[in-house]
Amino acid sequence: MEAESATVIISLDKHEMQVADWIAALPLDALRHWHTPRIDISLVTNNRPASLHRLLSSLQKAHYFGDEVPLYLNLEQTADSVTQRLASDFDWPYGSVTVRHRIVLGGLMPSIVESWYPASNDTYGVFLEDDVEVSPMFYGWLKMTILYYRYSMAMRDRSTRLFGVSLYQQKFFELRPEGRQPFDAHVLFESLALDPTLPYLSQIPCSWGAAYFPEVWREFHLYLALRLSEMAVPIADQIVPEIRSNKWPQSWKKYIIELIYLRGYVMLYPNYANYSSLSTNHVEKGTHIKDAVVSKTRAQYEVPLMTRQESLLALPSGRLPSYETLPIIDLWGMVATDDDIIERGWQSAALLDSCPVPFRLDVHPSYNARELLCAKDYERVNRYVDTQPLAGSIKDIQRRREKEAQQILRDREAQANARITAALAQAEAAAQGDMRERPMMVPHPDHGSEHADGPRAAVLRQPGETVEAHREEQEELARAANAAEQRQTPHIIEKYTPRQPPLVEQGDNDDDADVVDVDSSEQEEASPLDLDADSEGEVISDIFESARSRAKVQEIEEDQDSADGSDGVDDAGGVEEEVGGRFIPKDRREPLGWEMEGEAADQE
């Protein structure tokens, strides 16, 4: 951006002097930025070489007032050879030419949205489809309005919600729920006691020739990426209530209308007499237009193009009006105020329950779509789409999502059935003795000693069924497993070796201290066990009783020469017993530790 005090040189050709009267109507602070904005032209074409030739010819005949204007030719994958040759051989004397050819069929959404991206906040993009034709004065209209509303000191802070400048003058409103409705701004403004040729602001984005501002177009790119990824809102959800564009899932206009509605953005429209416009649409057969509707709708949408003999200053007071005096038309063709459309969008954003939007009219928009769509479903974070997922209507999208959900349920059911089958096979093998479940060691309530529980049968049930419905089958399965395990194990109880550490007890005299090992030879001379005992539990209890009865424990006093003189005596003066390196209160019986040897241990 040039300094405010710098001298600005504007170079014009002779044939442009007669159509450059609008330059004198601009304020000086706007003229100082004459070379600051750069206007890029982006053309989108497919397989209509005659239409493309007409558009390129109209661009060559336009006046650019000494500016360098980059031109981008975007060819669809299905572009025919004539279209490709016409694009590659085109001579553009006003700047650089860039030809791009898609390798994947994108459709109108990516073809338009991806055809241009701003290099800076002083770069503006003009989008033209090949069935559009421009006026020789189209560039002068864009240059005049951008300089005045974007770079003059009086207007730059007031027009922060202006997202573009249209070349086309509207004759119909297409967004009302009941369908297309005729619109005449001249008649409307006369009824409001306004000048009938007053330019106006509208929330409707123009796709038949318009310049889009860099901040909003950059925000739209992010908004569209978030919207298609469904990170915050499902793609089938309606953001704008009661509007016809909700039925256009394949159109980029559906999503930019959502952004415009939520933010309260507006576009500047020309309103010259007799519908004189800076661009027109010839409504030719293409992606969204069929043969049957071409002849019927062409007369409705074609408008006359402004000629060189007409002046861009054919405006009220001979100059562009102040921004705050421009009337505003909302998405439904109704007159509104700036506060109305901003508050309406803020309320709808709050209903989304996605992100809190600060409602302050005196704050400029941040142009950050993440303020409108915040990721709430964390399973879908960073799940941006690779290609266009919107093949079909909203009903087709909903049906496809239902099929995906059903497939997920089928996959989960198959995984559950596989786990149930494996568990049944394991239980059957255990019942046949081919596989024994390892006993689970559970803590005993006395001093953490452990006992082995018997084998447990697996508890199996089908999905949706209760345990009570299979209780008898489970009990039978458990009994069969226990019986099979008992048959596999010989009914022999081998010798138990009690493991009792020396018992130390406080005696009356230190000289009487003695130590008696309960693992004495007297226990080894015990009578052999009766193998015909009624149960294994009775044999074990007999062993315990005989071990307790034959254990001879003599009382001794604690050695007074030990390293810690307080060992064996608690704080209250009570006497403790030391067993296996730990002290036990005297009034508490020490349980016998024991272990089994041989297969009897496994059986237990």
From TrEMBL:
Q: Where do the record's region annotations for Disordered lie?
A: 425-604
Cite the record's Acidic residues compositional bias ranges. 507-539, 556-578
Q: Which domain of life, per UniProt? A: Eukaryota
**N-terminal signal peptide:** none
Basic and acidic residues bias: start-end ranges: 434-454, 467-478, 545-555
InterPro entries for this protein:
Nucleotide-diphossugar_trans
Name of the featured protein: BZ3500_MvSof-1268-A1-R1_Chr4-1g06700 protein
Source organism = Microbotryum saponariae
